[in-house]
Each structure stands twice: as C-alpha cells, then as structure tokens.
Amino acid sequence: MKKYNVAVIGAGVVGIEMLRVLKQREFPVNTLKVFARSARDINVDGRVYSVQSITPDGFNGVDIALFAGTEGEKGAAVTYASEAVSRGAVVIDNGADFRMDPKVPLVVPEVNAADVKKHKGIIANPNCSTIQMVVALNPLHKKFGIKKIIVTTLQASSGAGIRAVEQLKEETNLIAQGEFKSVQVQAVNKYMPQQLAYNCFPHIGSFVDGDYTNEEWKLVKETHKIMHAPKIKISATCVRIPVRTGHSESIYIETVKPITPQQARKILANAPGVVVMDDPKNNLYPMPKDAEGRDETFVGRIRQDAFNKKGLWLWVVADNLRKGAATNAVQIAECVISNSK
Q1: Domain spanning 130-156+200-320, CATH architecture
Q2: Is 128 among the residues known to form the active site?
Q3: How many percent of the chain have pLDDT more than 90?
Q4: pLDDT (tens digit, 9 = 90+) per residue, 283-300?
Q5: Which of 128, 141, 238, 335 is catalytic?
Q6: What per-residue confidence (pLDDT) applies to 180?
C-alpha cells in the first residue's frame, strides 16, 4: 500500500483530534509533521509528537496538509495554504476561509464525495453543525425532496475551542463551591460572551445580516453548496449549551412528497454514517455524552408534524470534534488518495 507524507497544522483541540483519528483509522502515513505557531512537544494518548514552527518550506514533500482551522487574515490557512499547494500538497482546511469559494469543493463524504475530484489543490471541511445535519438529511432529500429546514442547534463548548471548555469548567467549579442559587459567576479566564455553566445563550459567532449570526448563515449557505440544493429554504438558531463535547440539533423539515416516520427510520438506518436511536418510550434517543468519541451521526425523536403530512421532526447528535471536524477531514483525505489510485 502506498503511504503518504502528512502534515497537521494546529495543535489545539481539533489538531489533536486529527492526530488521534489518523492513527485510529490507520491512515497510510509515511511521515507525519505537526505545525503550529510555536515549537513544542505534545502528548496525545501516550504518544509524543514534536510540533514544529510553521514555515513555507516545512511543506516540502508533504502530500496531504490537514489544517485544523484557524481562520481570518492571521489564520494559518490564509497564510500557508497556497504555499502548501505550490509544493504539491492537497490542502484540507477545517476553517471557514475557503468554504464558499466556488472553486473550492466543500465536502462531506457521505453526501458529496464526488466533489473531491473537482479540487484545484484545496478542499474545504464544512462547519461542524452543518456536517451532522446534511449527513442526516441528505438521504431523506434524495427520496422525498426537502423544501424547507428549520433548525435549532445546541452546541457544546468545545466547538469554540479549549479556552471555552476551560471557561465552562471554571464556572462550574465556582458554582459548586457556593450556594446553588448563586449562579451569577465571573470566570477569571472568560472567553465566551456570556456565562455558560448553568446557562445557555443564543449567540455563536457574530451578528450579521438580518440579525442572524454568521454561524447560522453557515448552516444555510454550506447546506446549499454541499447538497447541491440552493432552493431549500433554511432558517437556523444556534445556541451554546453547557456541554463539553457533542452538538445536538432539533430539526424540522418539510418535504415535497409526504413522508412518515417509519419511512424516514428505514432510510436512515441504511444511510452511511448514520445510527438511528429512536425508542423514546424506553428512554432511547441520542445524547451528547453517548456521541462523544464516536464518528457516527445519531438520529432519534423522528416524528411527524401533527398538522402536516409533509412535515417531520428529527433530533440529531454528533461529536463536533470528530465527525464535525477531524474525522470528516480525514475521510476527505481518504477520498483524495482513493481517487489518486
């Protein structure tokens, strides 16, 4: 089997998860480099990785470069993606910088793996909340046609990075040390715009057009691009909740053709990457604590709108660091090497 020279750019929560997923999925790695702003050693599951300071020449000889997702003008992808491509690497970027570029494929392998073939050196990894939604909805769209999506996401602290996780932990500890009623706390290392422990707030990203956040618009625009379905009407509300890892989504769809819960369960049970957990009378439904560390997208609470035979509710849960980021990126890399054979 041919092996590949791989680079992981970023040593935060997503970069660490990429290293873990590469090993667990037995990706055919020849050499592995880890780049970040500063050199250091990191320990991942007992294995020590030597992190190098990122430079353009560091990409010499790299076949696949997995960018963990720092965004914007000072982000690694903006600065170094073209350098990596010019040296022969295929870049898979977890950040938002290239997602809506019409020349860059935006890929969820269970949905649009064929789009990988269109790449010009860069492939974008979608937003975490988008990935799990399209994995669950695309099989239903292909059979019944979806014309409307209304989604509320309940997103874990790890989606905002390690500093957000640390804020949640610190706030929870502060509350635990005092009276239960004393829930107004101020973390020393506050990172998110509001207290998260014992709280939730509908504010992820920046408020932009129509008073929606850019996180909410990602669900709209990215879904249209990935599913090749720009006419689907999508409206979203994104909420940060006091969970460490695992995003949940309450999704309402309206289909072109009538759909029953039984039909949806059968289709989803046979869909790639989906696990149906739907026996609410026996307390069986997806929860973040059960999805953590898993690569599947879990679907439950499938039920019909009481007033619309073309309306269906679903509850969708996935690990935002794995399927929502690292695993999806490595799956894209697997598609790349499969197409190169």
Answers
A1: 2-Layer Sandwich (3.30)
A2: yes
A3: 88
A4: 999 999 999 999 999 999
A5: 128
A6: 55
